[in-house]
Specification:
9 helices; five-stranded mixed β-sheet; alpha+beta; seven-stranded mixed β-sheet; binds molybdenum atom; binds the ligand Nc1nc2c(c(=O)[nH]1)N[C@H]1C(S)=C(S)[C@@H](COP(=O)(O)O)O[C@H]1N2; Sulfite Oxidase, Chain A, domain 2
Length: about 325
């Protein structure tokens, strides 16, 4: 799907001949290597190794919102990624040298297929989809982001979890030489997040490998990150290196840091406030009115929706659960 007019495409985005040839070689060699995990590959869904390369063979999704996406600049310069610093522009400023390829993911725990897999082998069997989702940060701001990714449920199936698997646990790369923010003890590293197996099997979550039709930028979690649109942004873990099918619920990084403020479920809920601020409203990044009125009245806020507006798809997952206690 073409989002931007061709005139908007910068010359730097046009693939150089050298990169094109390398990519051809790469596709051929992975094809020759045969089916490492699951037979059948869609050449268009291979993740190119080049920065800002356009992703091909991307399908649209019925789950996309029709709201206007935030600008590429908003999405790539206003980030939370504490591995690269705690200020909003730190991930953009400190992650440019990060090299996200080659990349592998270790799969462990209660599943028939475990081991360490190249990123390409995990992504290859799936068709890439564009999913334009709202992202609601626990800090009461939001954006609309055109991700490109693959349904998490399909990836989970690929590893054939066993009945003992009750949670899917994700971890981010732990490497303070490559992630300078890990020299600070602001969180316990590696960053860890988890979903129940039922949440992971829902059709909404994706593993994102792209943004605006291009390879995912480092500051947004390259080369692969989770997106769970009905939960606060901190559940959407970036730079994933491991997936563990666990019988027990882990303590996640934000639960460890502040258990009274950040719960395991972290469902977007305008009726349950954060201990230090209201969750009833949110500031849509980039939407503030310009000029003098803004300084008098402050940035425009809009109401926050239950489950971030995805209740129809996910409310049933929490039937009978007290969402005030299980925040
Ligand atoms: N590994 C890791 N993943 C992370 C974070 C982080 O600090 N480290 N921040 C989270 C938070 S709080 C948010 S709001 C989203 C932001 O994603 P974005 O910068 O792509 O918009 O990433 C989440 N994933
Ligand atoms: Mo967040």
């Amino acid at each position: 799907m073409l989002i931007r007019k061709p005139a908007d495409i910068r010359p730097s985005e046009i693939t150089s001949r050298e990169n094109y040839l390398n990519r051809r070689k790469f596709i051929q060699s992975t094809a020759l290597a045969g089916s490492s995990l699951i037979a059948g590959t869609a050449a268009g869904s291979i993740v190119p190794e080049e920065r800002r390369a356009r992703l091909t063979g991307v399908e649209t999704s019925e789950f996309s919102t029709s709201e206007a996406p935030n600008s590429y600049t908003d999405i790539t310069t206003y980030n939370n990624y504490y591995e690269f610093g705690t200020n909003k522009d730190d991930p953009f400023r400190n992650s440019q040298e990060f090299e996200p390829r080659p990349w592998s993911i270790t799969v462990s725990g209660h599943a028939d297929k475990t081991g360490t897999f190249n990123l390409e082998d995990i992504v290859k069997p799936h068709v890439l989809q564009e999913r334009i989702y709202r992202l609601r940060c626990v800090e009461a701001w939001s954006m609309v982001i055109p991700w490109v990714g693959i349904p998490l449920a399909d990836v989970i199936k690929q590893f054939a979890p066993q009945s003992a698997a009750k949670y899917v646990v994700f971890r981010t790369l732990n490497d303070r030489a490559r992630m300078p923010g890990q020299r600070s003890r602001v969180l316990r590293w590696p960053y860890i997040e988890a979903l129940t197996i039922a949440e992971a099997a829902n059709p909404l979550p994706i593993l994102a490998v792209g943004l605006y039709g291009e390879v995912l930028p480092n500051q947004n979690g390259a080369p692969i990150r989770l997106i769970v649109p009905w939960k606060y942004g901190f559940k959407s873990i970036k730079g994933i290196v491991s997936i563990d099918f666990s019988e027990t619920r882990p303590r996640t990084s934000w639960e460890i840091a502040a258990p009274h403020e950040y719960g395991f479920y972290a469902n977007v809920n305008p009726n349950v406030d954060h201990p230090r601020w209201s969750q009833a409203r949110e500031r849509r990044i980039g939407s503030a009115p310009q000029g003098a009125l803004q300084s008098i009245f402050g940035a425009k806020k809009q109401p926050t929706l239950m489950f971030n507006g995805y209740g129809e798809q996910v409310a049933h997952l929490y039937d009978g659960l007290d969402l005030r206690r299980n925040f």
